Amino acid sequence: MVQAFELSVAGCRVPQQQQQQQHFTSRFGRAAKLAFFWSFGFGGFPQQKIRAAFPRLGMAATEDALFRSIEGMQKAANKPWGKFLDAGTGTHSLKWINTLNTEGFTAVTADPQFAENTRKEIGFKVKTPDEIVVGNWRDEKFLEGRVFDTVLADYLVGAIDGFAPYYQDQVFERLKRHVAPGGRIYLVGMQPLPDHPGGAAELVCEAARLRDSCILLAGHRPYREYPLDWITRQMKKSGMVVTSAKKMPVLYAPHTVKRQLDVASRKLPIIAATDPKLAAALERHISDLDGRVRKELAGAGGRVEVGFDYVVAAELAREPAAGAERKEAVTPEGEGGGKWGGGGGGTVAAEATTAAAR
């Protein structure tokens, strides 16, 4: 089933220290949700437990740098929000969407319990014609015939492997059907971690590999990130034109890596049920790696940059007039340097975990 995920987005020009704290706060909320998601083995999305354990999920959505980035892209395009589709929803995105001047929103989740709880606990009165609906994007009849001016997909592609394997390339065509002429889709994702980045970053990647190994040994499916160029390629194949994209570097601190290792630890009882010796060896490995991370990152100033998050804005490709020559769309450069706006000024260094350890 296609499980719901919430969205967030990127970069007002405020002092970098302030930007970093704001973006970290929002990413921590998403981190909490995903960490619990992995710990429960994709069997459901225990939102109420997440909110109880991580009260920062109740923060103001305006603190989210990723959401600010989407607002900036929308303003630059001089487009109204219109009818809004949150293709994989969560409490954080709903609070943000509720602050926008929309003509009503539809928020999608695959979890009936989450929908029921959210209607009660979201903290605002949902306005008509706003709605939270339960559905599965693999259901061809779901939301049939309905179109929206703005579509949001927050970490949805990376999450699909856990509950709808091998559907990632099809979700673009599926969502495109619901983009109104002149409308936009905003997609948020995370670049896969490099295999061997060198230095202290090696330990971050080692922790991610160990986490995923424990998830697999427990018989569950890990989150699967997709690179920015794959995302834009699939969007083009589905008949969309990428109008802008931004990259946001991610910083890791010992406690953010520890959350990844905690995910691995929560799988050990399942592994121990069939192979106690293996589980014991993995437990020692987790403890050893945690110690090495703390020591290495302390010598690197407490944080290390590894990879980046990205935000992509796309629109429906326009069919050329009869007899006109078809030309390839040119994707404009993102803000902050580089073709995709990465690395340089205007991007945000966010202290956050990789997706599977949030």
TrEMBL record:
The Gly residues compositionally biased stretches are: 334-347
Bias type Low complexity, positions? 348-358
Q: Which residues form a coiled coil?
A: none
Q: Where is this region: Disordered?
A: 321-358
Note the InterPro entries from the entry.
SAM-dependent_MTases_sf
Which CDD domains does the protein's record reference? AdoMet_MTases (cd02440)
Name the record gives this protein: Methyltransferase type 11 domain-containing protein
Organism, by scientific name, is Ectocarpus siliculosus
